[in-house]
From TrEMBL:
InterPro entries: GlcNAc_PI_deacetylase-related, LmbE-like_dom_sf
Gene Ontology molecular function, alphabetical: hydrolase activity, acting on carbon-nitrogen (but not peptide) bonds, in linear amides
Family matches, as SUPFAM superfamilies: LmbE-like
Signal peptide (UniProt feature, chain positions): none
Name assigned to this protein: LmbE family N-acetylglucosaminyl deacetylase
Record's keyword annotation contains Thylakoid: no
A Pfam family matched in the record: PIG-L
Entry keyword annotation includes Zinc: yes
Upper taxonomic lineage: Bacteria, Bacillati, Actinomycetota, Actinomycetes, Streptosporangiales
Sorted UniProt keywords: Zinc
GO biological process: glycoside metabolic process
Amino acid sequence: MTIDWSEQRILIFAPHPDDETLGCGGLMHRAKAAGSQVFIQFLTVGDTADLSPKGFSTANERYAEIKEVADHFRWDDWHIAFPGDEYHLRLDQVPRVDVCNAIERKSPLSIATIEPTIVLAPHRTSYNQDHQVTAEAVHTALRPSNTALRHHPRVVLAYEEAADQWRYEAAAPPNLLVELAEHDLDAKVTGMRLYGTQMHDHPHTRSELTLRSLAALRGMQSGVALAEGYHTLRWLA
């Protein structure tokens, strides 16, 4: 079964700026080229201790990066639900009902507002607490109910990141593979380079070689040159 990317309205939930590119950069580029709408709901961003030469990146630097990446991928819109240091890397301290409500209906890019045909979220087996909270909150927000009362996207997928494999209960291999052309992967790598505070040299989970190697592995597993892997949570045919 294939997806007609020309008719999709895609909503991606990213715990932090760069997660959407790490997990879905190739898909975003392929979908936008075909005519899809793409919306990015970030959960949080703040000042970050990192492995950059100065060892620190500010929220303002991260905002500037988002704007460059948004232009690069031609997103239709983006929004941050819980900005600030009181939330960044602390989403596990936010009442789950508040996170679910933002995702479901209270954010400008909520499921109720956008009415997406495809929703993508991080996988719950990530070691990162913000990723876990985002995955579980999206899962709750998309709980089964009467479709006459609440919007139900027909496709719900969990995206993968190389760092997720570190967790001892890492997920099984992806069960949905999206074929990428070379230019889709190049666009993904370029997008990550625009996140200058987050991109790293190899060996690192956010290095260019890691991104290209994972795409080659997923491609090989599906009999094509390059692919991105996803875990299917819902597929209504």
